[in-house]
Predict the structure.
Amino acid sequence: MPWNHWVIIAIAVWLIISPWLLGFSMLNLAVWNNILAGGLVIVMALWNFVPPEE
């Protein structure tokens, strides 16, 4: 498995937890934006782990 997928997943996890660590968790729209964007990035990165069928 390529190491860059793990880096992308780590960045997505940071995106999800950053509202609480950086102190803007009271802004609901920003929190939901970070959660949905981070979740989408994780799903796409995990999707790339699956080898294509021939």
